[in-house]
Amino acid sequence: MRKNRKTARWKMRTNKQVLTIARRYLGEGGARFRKFCGLPSGAAWCNAYVDYVAYQGEVSKLYFDRKKETYCPHSIKWCEKNLAQIPLYLAMPMDIIYFDWEKNGVPNHIGLVVSKKTTDTIRTIEGNTDGGRVAEKTRAGKYVQAVFRPHYKGSFTIGTVKVDGSCGYSTIANLQKALGGCAVDGILGKATVKRLQQYLAITQDGQWGRGTSKALQKMLKNNDCYHGAIDGEFGPASVKALQKWINAKNKSEPIKAEEPKAEPIKVTEPAKPVEDKAPKKTAADKIVEQIRIMAWPKGTPKKNWSYKKGRPRNAMKALLKHYGYDTKPEMSDCGNNVNAIVRKSGVDKHFTSLHAVKDPFPKKEDKFKIIISGRVPKVKEMEPADIIRYKKKGGKDQHAMFYLGHNLIADAGHYNRFFNIRKNDFRYKRRNVKKSTIQVLRAKG
Q: Is 371 exposed, middle or buried, given 0-12, 13-18 or 19+ CB atoms closer than 10 A?
């Protein structure tokens, strides 16, 4: 904040004013920023640059609550607790952006948003980049771990929203009016995202991720505002649909702003915890839950997966024996492990079509749908609990695995044939794909 000498009042800087300050240091090395945060020579200083820009812009309270954060895995925790995470396409100047080069769920780098380029690329300004200096970069969305919105205040107009696919302060303010039950201030914070999630009847965590985007796309489609794919990619088409819905909602209910006073129960009633206490588990949730119980956590970055008492191999062998599979080491193949997990989850109690030797490679499944066939899948096409399998022509060499997200898979065949979780290398990439048949199955429901 800065003090206006004429009026003697504190006035908040805008995000674009702070961007001007951030650009003052383009091309500069890390000495200034390390000194500001007390870092030794040679230490990484990308987070220190963000601290320094916030300090010089007199908006330190909006970034880490005036604390000098110097380590990305620590500063992202503050953001997750205090700020709303938003889709990449909705990013605005001076939003905080984290990058995960290794795709293991741990941020490696931090920067500030300059502008969005496309639905999957963004322009940023960062410290400790391009040979250890401040520079503007164009980054691919696949490396972005999260984008967070500091609570900058901006000007907005209540009324008809221009349907242009740009989600600015006016769009957010009118969305807040349409939702009701939250402040109309144009700030896309956790309170607004939670109110949106409450309206969509999904888990209210204040983080606008793919799940929230999918639920919103589905709602917009049901209201005949959106005609695209429900894929969780909240791009310009989705924003335009949201703007159409906002206009229709506010036009049909012009006095909704007074509703909380007249009938306060309508605002508070959906917030009762009964609705969200036990959300219905999807088929994918049930499968991932069984993987968490049965898998050996070797190869995971956090090693936070659990298994039943006793050695993990004994737990999986007991499950294989329960379903009548041969538990000899040479027969404890990947297909049997996948079959057992699916059957234990209850998604398909008769799922046996992945047996490596006896069963053919099916064209369809009753409880599963084939989403990819005949080619190597891309990571962005995958969802947790997807089953990836391949076999060479002739059917003698087949492999099956679960994809878990965050670049992890669960399978058997490595580490003494334990059913384990490890970093994803999609082993079939090292094989001759032309001589193999590849399918990806996804549980229905």
A: middle
d(CA 141, CA 120): 5
Q: Cα dist. 232→21, 79, 211, 214 in Å?
A: 34, 22, 7, 4
Q: For residue 102, how many other CB atoms are within 10 A of its CB?
A: 12
Instruction: Give the range of the structural domain holding residue 107, as residue numbers without chain letter.
Output: 2-149
Residue 215 pLDDT greater than 90, yes or no? yes
Average pLDDT over the chain reads: 77
CB 186 within 8 A of CB 172: yes
Structural tokens at position 150: 């500091």
Rounded CA Rg of the chain? 25
CA distance 432 to 183: 58
Same domain, 318 and 412: yes
| Of 357, 341, 323, nearest in space to 412 by CA | 341
296 in helix, strand or coil?
strand
pTM (predicted TM-score): 0.53
d(CA 349, CA 423): 29
Do residues 115 and 91 share a domain? Answer: yes
For residues 237 and 314, the model is more confident at 237
Assess whether 28 and 73 both reside in one domain: yes
Q: Which long-range contacts (CB under 8 A, 24 or more apart) does 376-384 make?
A: 376/426, 376/428, 376/429, 376/433, 376/438, 377/426, 377/438, 377/440, 379/103, 379/142, 379/407, 379/424, 380/142, 381/440, 382/440, 383/284, 383/442, 384/284, 384/288
Contacts of 120 (CB under 8 A, 6+ apart): 88, 140, 141, 142
**Quick check: is 416 in a domain?**
yes
User: Mind listing the pLDDT tens digit for each residue in 116-138?
Assistant: 877 788 999 999 998 899 999 99
